[in-house]
Amino acid sequence: MGSVNFRSKEISWLSFNARVLQEAARDNVPLIERIKFLGIYSNNMDEFFRVRVAILKRIVQLDKHTVFEGGSPRDILRNIHTMVIEQTRMFDKTYDKIIQDLGKQDIYIINEFDLTRDQGEFVKRYFQKKVRGNLMPIILSKRRELPDLADDGIYLAVYLKDNIEGKVNYALIEIPSVLDRFVLLPSNDGKKYVMLLDDVIRYELDDIFYMFNYDEIGAYTFKLTRDAELDINDDISESYVKKISKGLERRKEAIPVRFVHDKNMPEELLRILLKKLNYSTDDAVIRGGRYHNFKDFIDFPKFGSKHLTYPSVPSIPHKHFKPSSSLFDVVTKRDILLHFPYHSFHHFIDYLREASIDPNVREIKITIYRVGKNSGVVKALRNAARNGKKVTAVMELQARFDEKANISWANKLKNDGVKVIFGVPGLKVHSKLCLVTRKENGGLSKYACVGTGNFNEDSAGIFADHLLMTKHNGIASEVCAVFDFFSKNYNIPEFNHLLVSPFSLRKSMEDYIEKEMENAAKGEEAYMYIKVNNLVDYDLIQLLYKARKAGVKIYLNVRGMFSVVSEFDKPENKIESIGIIDRYLEHSRIFVFCNRGDEKVYISSADFMTRNLDRRIEVVCPIYDKKLKQEIKIMLDMQRKDNCSARILNNDMDNFIRSKKEDEQEFRSQLEFYNWLKELSN
Q1: Distance from chain centroid for Cα 117
Q2: HSE (CB half, 13 Å, CA atoms) of 79?
Q3: Going by C-beta distance under 8 Å and a sequence separation of 6 or more, which residues neighbour residue 644?
Q4: CA–CA separation, 483 vs 9, rounded Å?
Q5: I need a labelling partner for 235 at 20 to 30 A (CA). Which of 28, 292, 419, 580 fits?
């Protein structure tokens, strides 16, 4: 059995994804945004099965008697199955309600049975022109094995029955991912009609299987999810890039961990598929609805109706960044803290662009984990190299599901003369660092950027993160030391400002928590704020319980996995714990310690997960400027007051939104912080 004071991260993650699903069900969220939340939920669930469930299944296969702090892997898998089935019901109910609400807006998702004659003709033409050439059906045979099926795709299992001869044929059709999932249909009544590509194919099944004799034909959706771990071996004779590339190829053959199917699929067809795909009774086989791969609903057509989506929110220009003025001059005068997506990420791209052409800049170093599809960051780095700057990019090839993109970017950077370092053997590089060295006043000055999120303009528009830009000599020198370590892994530097894992971060966090306990024992004020994506490290959680029992006030703000049992002890020791799901993805990591009134405030790339603390290069950076400390505290306090999007993280995992007091106004922290920053910029 697991600890009574520790919840498995897998079960807590499912509770987090239930909060995402809640957003899809909320009437006060714009309708198209609700559809997008369904897509996000689905995409999250795919990754959960590809990674977390796959790992548990591996462990069960290796040792059936393993027990973690959160329970045995076998028990956790059973609980996952129960929770997923319940959430699938909630998902289907939410989807049905959204369909009804779309109808109230004269938007209809229709299938192959609902078409008018004109729409039917349009679908036939669309199929012939766009779809038919992309379909390659596979006929199922008892003797032939199935080819490798993509775990990122959707398939139609087709049933063809000849009633006269009593013969049944089965086939598979992969729904082409190169085509839009949604087809807009013509209409004459002012209403909007949308058809899924799945149903376009269903409508034209006769055109596909005309060479078979059949009286009945049907097509039923299914999808499978495979183990996404790469199994990178330690063969030093192979280059790192080759190992990653081989691992990506092996993903195609990885064991399946989930099978979701249309509940109306004939039992015989389902049995054949499961047998051919080597599913066992231990696997998650889930009866679902007519459609799968709801992640595509993230791109559901917007139809131009403003009230159906969140209103556009223009980014706030930072008040100290003026057009046609040097960003280095600004950072020389003061530390700058950018809050994304409220501030524009273009400030950082402008900073790199200036560095790429400034004749005084000698060197640029940066860590790259995930970048945008059309990355302005990479363009600036390549341009800097072309302009004779010494440029180093530390590229993490094992950024899950971005491995292929990162290999491609690495090759482009190398071609332009950028020195590319592929991480550190045995340690993922997850820190978000940039260092610019510039000739000034007869010497060399260093400018450091330390962030909580990736240098990625795509995600910076939806991820709430922070980026410190500073010329502070201590911080910049230690960022430089981290980059030196990437080149010389045997030389571990000392740090007096930064907290760096796996060297000092865990010990530093433990020391800060214990200091708060000592201060509480002396009757002094003692508190801490911890804002992270995930809080699942067993040892730190047990230390938090001790601190709370010692009288330390603890405020937890955790978006995702949350293994803390908030009511671990007596009612007076309850730990205040919230998780915010709203328009923007809360992604920043922040630590604040009272420290006898001399507050210590840090921004971090690391969550409180064992892997972040012990097996990754993470950097936690102090905020020294008093005004910037205040900005962070104001944001944290706003989030504590949120009564629109903050869920209470309690023992029952029921994800209740904090209830408003009788005389309390609605307070949505993301909007309030945006308005506060806007006022600050004037």
Answers
A1: 43
A2: 18
A3: 582, 657, 666, 667, 668, 669
A4: 32
A5: 419
pTM: 0.87
CB contact at 8 A, 450 and 475: yes
Our CA angle for 50, 54, 55, nearest 5°, is 125
Task: Determine if residue 227 is left, alpha or beta; phi over 0 gives left, psi from -120 to 50 gives alpha, anything else beta.
Answer: beta
CB 224 within 8 A of CB 256: yes
Instruction: Please say if 430 is a catalytic residue.
Output: yes
Both structure tokens of 131: 């779809």
Domain at 500-681, CATH homologous superfamily? Endonuclease Chain A (3.30.870.10)
Helix (H, G, I), strand (E, B) or coil at 99: helix
Highest mean pLDDT of the ranges 48-57, 472-481, 488-497: 472-481
As a whole number of angstroms, the distance between CA 203 and CA 198 comes to: 9
The class level of CATH for 327-494 reads alpha beta
Distance CA 132, CA 203 (A): 12
Chain centre to alpha carbon of residue 197 = 26
- Contact between 612 and 618 under an 8 Å Cβ cutoff? The reply is yes
Distances (CA, A) of 578 to 464, 636, 639: 16, 11, 9
Q: Strand, coil or helix: what is 389?
A: coil
Compute the half-sphere exposure of residue 524: CA atoms within 13 Å on the CB side of its CA: 12
In this chain, the answer to whether the domains covering 327-494 and 500-681 adopt an identical fold is yes
At 546, the amino acid letter reads: K
Q: How far apart, in whole angstroms, are the C-alpha atoms of residue 496 and residue 517?
A: 23
Contacts of 538 (CB under 8 A, 6+ apart): 3, 6, 69, 563, 610
Please list, in sequence order, all residues whose beta carbon lies within 8 angstroms of the beta carbon of residue 588, skipping any fewer than 6 positions away. 452, 453, 464, 465, 466, 531, 603
Per the CB < 8 A criterion, the answer to whether 463 and 452 are in contact is no
Domain boundaries, the chain: 9-299, 327-494, 500-681
Q: Is 424 exposed, middle or buried (0-12, 13-18, 19+ CB in 10 A)?
A: middle
Architecture of 9-299 per CATH? 2-Layer Sandwich (3.30)
Q: CA-to-CA distance for 477 and 110, rounded, in angstroms?
A: 61
Greatest mean pLDDT range, 100-114, 136-150, 158-172, 386-400: 100-114
Specify which residues 138 forms β-bridges with.
Answer: 172
Which letter does DSSP use for residue 71 in this model?
B
- pLDDT at residue 228, rounded to an integer: 58
Q: Which residue has the tokens 């603890």?
A: 554
477-510: pLDDT as tens digits: 999 999 999 988 878 889 999 999 999 999 999 9
DSSP 394-450: EE-TTSTT-HHHHHHHHHHHHHTT-EEE--BTTBEE---EEEEEEEETTEEEEEEEE
Which tokens is 388 given? 């004779």
Can you read off the two tokens belonging to residue 88? Answer: 């699938």
Q: Tell me the residue type at 395.
A: M
What are the DSSP calls for 13-24, one per residue? HHHHHHHHHHHH
Q: Which of 261, 343, 347, 430 is catalytic?
A: 430
Give the integer Cα–Cα distance in Å for 604 and 620.
Answer: 4
- Own/partner pairs, 137-143, CB within 8 angstroms, 24+ separation: 137/171, 137/172, 137/173, 137/208, 137/209, 138/171, 138/172, 138/173, 139/169, 139/170, 139/171, 140/169, 140/170, 140/171, 140/172, 140/272, 140/276
